[in-house]
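Moderator note: this is an archived Q&A kept for reference. The question asked for a predicted structure of one protein chain; the sequence and the answer are reproduced below.
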Amino acid sequence: MQMHFPLAPEPETESREKGRLLFAGPVEFLKGVVAMDGLPPPDRLEVCFAGRSNVGKSSLINALTGRKALARASNTPGRTQEINYFTTAGPYLVDLPGYGYAEAPKAVVEKWQRLLKSYLAGRATLRRAFVLIDTRHGIKSVDDEILTLLDRSAVTFQVVLTKADKVSQADREMILAQVRGAVAKHPAAYPELIVTSSEKGDGIETLRAVIATLA
């Protein structure tokens, strides 16, 4: 029986090289956006990275681009309150505010959650959303809200598991089963998962190749 939502296969040589070249070129911070009218012109495709606060989004973007401090990693969850745009030779990389963080002032949280939802629902050039899920925790209800929003907006999303090096193989398999069950309910889900570790480099080449093939 074919497994639903298998792990993305290792990229073939051509795809791997395409991904390497995309991120070997210039990758630069373009701007931070606090309102929809501040978004750059929709003159190219873009991919975005969404995830709960402290899921390891900044670390993954830095590993992906091979730059240690391109995206500012913080020990304080919820620090990213803007939509941050990065330019590559291909699509824009878009770092979205972390969601599910309740310790900031309520009005601040509501403002950036509205911005996040407006972006996901209304950006025509958004080719794919990569939804980051911490391998230690699996999909939580706050993730499910975002996945449902992506369904409604008809935005294809792909789940990327982060921090895979922090769990045992047995625990990883349990979490993968939970994630597969959860994403199977979402029609906008791309049917392959990517398992990554920013620290060890696992899955980074695969994710680069996937982004390069979307460009």
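Archived answer notes: Residues 13-214 form a domain with the Rossmann fold fold (CATH 3.40.50.300).
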